[in-house]
Amino acid sequence: MNKVDMKILSIKEIALDSFEMILENKSVSETAVPGQFLHIHVLGHTLRRPISIADVDKTNHTVTVLFKVVGEGTRQLSKCPEGMMIDVLGPNGNGFNLKNKSNAHILLIGGGIGVPPLYYLGKTLKKQGYHITSILGFQTKASVFYEDEFKALGETYITTDDGTYGHKGFVTDIAKNITNIDRYYTCGPVPMLKAVMDVLHDYDGYISLEERMGCGIGACFACVIPAKNEPNGYKKICKDGPVFDANEVAL
Prior knowledge:
This protein is α/β, with parallel strands linked by helices. The chain has helices at residues 26-31, 72-78, 116-127, 147-151, 171-175, 190-199, 237-240, and strands at 2-15, 18-24, 37-40, 49-57, 62-68, 85-92, 105-111, 131-138, 154-160, 167-168, 183-188, 204-209, 224-226, 234-236, 243-245.
């Protein structure tokens, strides 16, 4: 984890209140792995905003992040101009476990702003020869993003809460009918993660937790989660995570 300045190359709204920001920094692009996040300082705000890494281009030294406007901090971030330098801590956290198994079938399940980190993961696994199936859940049609990007990785299903696009219902409606997977990776709101873990309890799985953070480096104890078989009874999401084995923590 390093404190760096990153240049905003582009920023655009890609879905309802959801923005894609492409940042430039050689050291971050060369070291970031799927599942890590950037802790971004927003002018006028004390606490940084943790934003998952959605993609990395090591050749052009760029890192792509996607975020949803949910308050004044992210609203201000969405209005930053191209060319602006922003203060970033990162890449932070532990990423996804990329176990090796030739021709393995991987299931990616994302909900809302939990979708972005799964894209860089999927791209990485695809290059390694894995078979990728993705299930992406959104609130409504206007909230859907990166559908074409995931389709380029493999078979992709879209669900919406209101049925305005894709399957009406939950990601688990689709997941329970997909068989012969070797493992799954999922990121999204805790109720979704619990449901996915319940449906796919027979499979090897990894979860990535979305969490409000204070320091982002494991010092403030603002983002702890109960842990199984852990002497002190908890793990820090920002430092020990945000990715955990599905059997490692208690949601």
